[in-house]
Structures are given as C-alpha cells and as structure tokens.
Amino acid sequence: xxDTYKTIEKPSDEVLFKEKNSKFFGYAFPVQSENExxxxxxxxxxxxxxxxxxxxxYQIGTKTKIYRANDDGEPNNSxxxxxxxxxxxxxxxxxxxxxxxxxxGVKLGVGGLVTAYKTGxxxxxxxxxxVEKTINTHFFIRFDYxxxxxxxxxxxxxxxxxxxxxxxxxxxxxxxxxxxxxxxIFNAFNHIFEVSITEKED
Length: 202
Description:
Impact_N; alpha+beta; Impact
C-alpha cells in the first residue's frame, strides 16, 4: 500500500505552443474541489475572452480519484483526453490543466489537435513544481482529563500530528498519521483503558 501522492503546490507559469497560426496557452493549477475548477475556468475565460476554446482536464483525490476531461467544442476526444493523458503521465492528482486555443484560420485535423493539446498540457506540467505529499488518516481520541498523560505519551512516542484539541473534563484530540501507520496507531490507543479512538470519515 502506498501512502504518498504527487501534486503541484502553486499554479504553473503560462506556456505557449503555436501550430499553423493557432495559439495554445497551457496552465496547471492545484485544486481540491470541483468548485475551484469552475472558478479558475471563469477567470481564464475573462482573461482570454477572445479565445475559441478552453479545454481542460482535472483529477482530484488521493485514496479514490475523480477526473473529468472536457473538449469544449473541439472534436470528440481531441482535447480533453490528451490533456488528461498528461496528468496520468506525470502521475499527479489534485490538479487542473487548461489549454486555451486561439484559432489561427488553418484547421489542424483531429491528429493535429491531439498533438497540440497534449503538448500544451505537457509544457504546463513541466513548468509546474511537482511535490510529493503523504496520504494521511485522521483519528478522534476521546478520554477523561485524568488520562491525559497516557494519551500524550503515545502522541509523543509515535510523533503524531495534533490537528485539533478540546481539553476540558471530557477531552477530544484529533490526530493525523500516515495511511501506512493506521493500524499501528489505532491499536496503540485502543489498548489504553478508558480511551476511545475512532477514525474520522473523509
């Protein structure tokens, strides 16, 4: 089981690929939700309001991934899928790649379009800074205040990240750990008397 994934931290620089007078502007953006995709597309349409096509593909998620590819008026599978192919090729997720086309008066044919959109997407991802992150699981740990030391000892020993905590008579701490540590961490707390641990749902 792997518990890492690759993504980009910040938007890539704008890239430009030209083919027979058509211009293809390529962009890559980090995204966490489909709502963000819509906002970015709206911005690009304002920025390139005289362009002919705003084709894109995105992939979101780590444990389970969702993706979409959009040809935006270009012939079927000539734009969105070649862009998505580059997302797969670079093995990145939580990413949106957009290629904006200004038509130059000469038709490129489906093969020419596939190559142009693929190249635009590839150039955008090549300029993006790709980073590796860990896939984490979150747990809630509930306990009485008197058991605080026992819980804190495990958190310190296992070098766990405390995401949130409410420390009153009834205490609740949210921790995160790498996916591959999930069972070990669950067992470490589950064995402590008067302490309950539950996994946070995604």
